[in-house]
Structure formats: C-alpha cells, structure tokens
Write a structure and sequence with these properties.
mainly beta; 28 strands
C-alpha cells in the first residue's frame, strides 16, 4: 500500500513567506556591507623595498569624499575615490607597521586599521666553516661573553654561585686574572671600552664596570633597557646589547642607557633569542641561543645577511645527558682585529675554536 503526503496549503504559504523574507534579508545585508580592509590581511609579510596592495571595503552607509592612508603615524597617500592603491615599503624599518585608512564623508571620519611586517629583502647567505686552530678552554666556565684584546681572551662566566670575569691566555687556557661575582649575581655579556670592562647580569638589573688592567670594580649601573641582560659588544661609538628577543639595543658608551635599537629579521620573520655579540668589519655577529647558528646582521637595518652553521664543532655525544645538551650550547664570539682571526666558543666547552668561514 502506498501512503500519500497531505500538505496544508496555509502552513506551506507561511513557510514560503518566511523563506522569501530570509533571502531578502540576506540580500539586504550584502548591499549594506560594513567597512574593513580587504588587503593587506593583518600581519602580512612584505619584503623590504617591495610594494603591497591596499584595498578597503567601503560599504554604502554613507558617501565617501576622501581617504587618507597612513603608515604608523605618517601620511603616505590620499585619494578622493575608493579605488585600490599600492604602497611602498622603501625606507621603512624592518618589523611591524600599523596601516590606517582615515575615511572622510558627510562631515564625519572613520579610521580602519591593519598591519604589515617588513622582512629582509632576500635570504641570508649561508656559510659553513673550517677549523684553523683548537685552543684549550676551562670546562667550568659557562660562557656568556667572550672578547679578544691585546693577545688575551676576556671572558664572562655565568651561573649563580659560579659567575666571574676572567682574563685568559689563549695558548694554554690558563686563567691569568679573575674577579668572582657574589653568588646572587649571574654574570652575562661583557665588552671592553678603552681601559674599562663592562659586564651585565642576567636578571639582577645591574651592570658592573671594571678597570681592565686590575679587574677592580669601579662602579655599578642600573640596567633597565631589556627584559633581561644577555649580550654586549662595542662598535667604537656605542654599546650593543641583547635581551633574548629579536632586538639589538644601542646604549650610550658612558651612561649605558638606551639611545636606539634595531629589530632583526631574515626573509622569513623575526629571529628570537639573540645572545652573544661581536662587531666585525661593520657587521654584527650574534649567536642564536640553543642553536648552532651565528647570524651576520646589517648594523643599520637589522636584516640578516648571513647565517653560519657551526654544527659539528664538538662531537655529537660529547655532552652525555639531555640537560647538558640543552644548556652547554654554542655561545661566544671573539675577533682579533689585528690579524682578522675569528674565534667561537660554547658554554662549558673544552675548546675555543679559531675558524674560517666558507660560503656554501
């Protein structure tokens, strides 16, 4: 037996009416669109020097008389119509920038915002290395800073209860001078400025100034620039400083207070965990903490121009425990300007290596 379906004509009419009303409402919503950026999408990555598209969905709530576009707080373009435009990144610092469309119409104004990240224009040149000489190193030293001056290594050893400033004979690894830090301090980066040595501490928000010849502590200073104290270097005019982020801070060489900064990016994004620093031929060399990489950074823009892979300097099984492998990592860059020798080290490593860079 077949069963038929009986339809109530009144209910069917109501259903059709509701459906038509829904469709009408949807149609109305598409014709009264809200205002927003269609491009760039929030967080768009743009290579430095390249243009990017800017397009705004204006809606039809009110007439648009003109639009002013700003990057950060600087006016870069204005239009009396709502067509799409292209904006340039030339001259912008690497990193995040706020994009604003200021829309004027019918005596009112409205701001729409988006943002872009300006990245390095090209991928870094990749390097490997050749070991020229292997020098002895004290495995008790948790290396946080390393410099070469006047035929000697100057070294900052970290870790609570074991931190010190050291002057070391490169050939023998013998400690010639040593100044121990009180156990509440974790020694970090150092740099030499004339006849003084500057040393940071990790989380104690203080730095120390020593006489280079005697290691006598001359003074202390408050360190509040970064979230923590990590690396230091001196380029002849200003002090360079890291705090474990992707920022390199510039400090006054006399007061050690912040006077500027650059953010470090390669062609893929920000490089975090910047640590020990050295300035070589106008470029900034920086260890990336917990990796085997040293970056070569443009000192003006923060763009990563080179990446040195130092994998294999120590045997893979040298550090037996997982904890040791995680903590006893590459850290320490020193440069002999007179002979153009490059030295690298690691935390509690048995050797300091003189290396030569080889382009891959």
């Amino acid at each position: 037996m077949r069963f038929g379906l009986k339809i109530n004509p009144i209910k069917n009419f109501i259903f059709i009416g509701v459906a038509l009303a829904f469709v009408s409402a949807c149609k109305d919503s598409t014709t009264t669109t809200y205002r927003s950026f269609l491009s760039p999408m929030i967080g768009l990555n743009v290579p430095s020097g390249k243009e990017f598209d800017v397009k705004v969905q204006f809606g039809n709530e009110q007439k648009v008389d003109s639009v002013i576009y700003l990057i950060d707080t600087v006016k870069v373009f204005s239009k009396t119509d709502t067509s799409a435009i292209k904006l340039k990144t030339e001259g912008l610092k690497l990193g995040n920038h706020l994009l604003t469309a200021k829309i004027f119409g019918e005596g009112k104004s409205e701001d729409l915002t988006s943002n872009i990240n300006v990245l390095a224009a090209q991928a870094p040149t990749e390097y490997t290395y050749k070991v020229i000489k292997t020098l002895p190193h004290d495995t008790a030293s948790y290396v946080e800073g390393l410099e070469y001056h006047d035929g000697f290594f100057y070294e900052s050893a970290g870790d609570y209860g074991h931190s010190s400033l050291r002057k070391v004979d490169p050939a023998s690894g013998k400690i010639l001078q040593k100044a121990d830090l009180d156990k509440q301090y974790f020694g970090e980066g150092i740099t030499v400025i004339g006849n003084k040595i500057i040393q940071l501490t990790y989380r104690e928000k203080v730095g120390f100034v020593y006489d280079k010849a005697t290691f006598k502590k001359l003074s202390e200073f408050s360190y509040t620039t970064g979230r923590e104290g990590w690396g230091l270097a001196f380029d002849g005019q200003k002090v360079l400083n890291t705090d474990g982020s992707n920022t390199i801070f510039f400090l006054n060489k006399d007061t050690y207070q912040k006077i500027g900064s650059i953010d470090v990016f390669d062609d893929k994004g920000a490089i975090q965990n910047l640590n020990e620093l050295e300035v070589i031929d106008g470029k900034i060399y920086s260890n990336v903490y917990t990796t085997n990489n040293i970056l070569i950074i443009n000192a003006e823009t923060g763009a990563v121009e080179g990446k040195i892979d130092l994998s294999g300097l120590l045997p893979a099984d040298y550090f037996k425990t997982e904890d040791a492998k995680a903590n006893n990592v590459l850290n320490g860059i020193a440069y002999d300007k007179a002979t153009k020798r490059l030295f690298v080290a690691g935390k509690k490593w048995p050797n300091i290596f003189q290396i030569e860079l080889i382009k891959k």
